[in-house]
Design goal:
Blueprint: H1 2-16, H2 18-39, H3 44-76
Helix pairs in contact: 1-3, 2-3
C-alpha cells in the first residue's frame, strides 16, 4: 500500500507541474502585450482584452492540473 501512495503522490506532483508551464506562458503573453502597447499605445484596450482572454484560457490548464492532483490525493490515496 505504501508504494501505491507514493505513486499517487508522484502523479499529483506531475499534475500540479502543469501550473509551471502555465506561468511561463502567461509571462510571455504579458511581455508581448507590454511590447505591443509600447509600439502602439492607441491599441491598449484591444491588446488588454486579448491578453486577459488568453490568460484566462491558459489558466484553465493549471486549474485542471490542480483538480486532478486534489482528486488523486484525496480519492486514491
Amino acid at each position: 500500500m505504501d508504494i501505491a501512495r507514493g505513486l499517487v503522490a508522484i502523479a499529483a506532483a506531475i499534475a500540479v507541474f502543469t501550473g509551471f508551464a502555465t506561468g511561463i506562458g502567461e509571462g510571455k503573453v504579458a511581455t508581448q502585450a507590454v511590447e505591443s502597447v509600447g509600439k502602439n499605445p492607441e491599441a491598449f484596450d484591444k491588446i488588454r482584452t486579448i491578453m486577459i482572454m488568453g490568460d484566462a484560457i491558459s489558466e484553465t490548464c493549471a486549474i485542471y492540473g490542480l483538480l486532478i492532483a486534489i482528486l488523486l490525493i484525496f480519492v486514491f490515496a
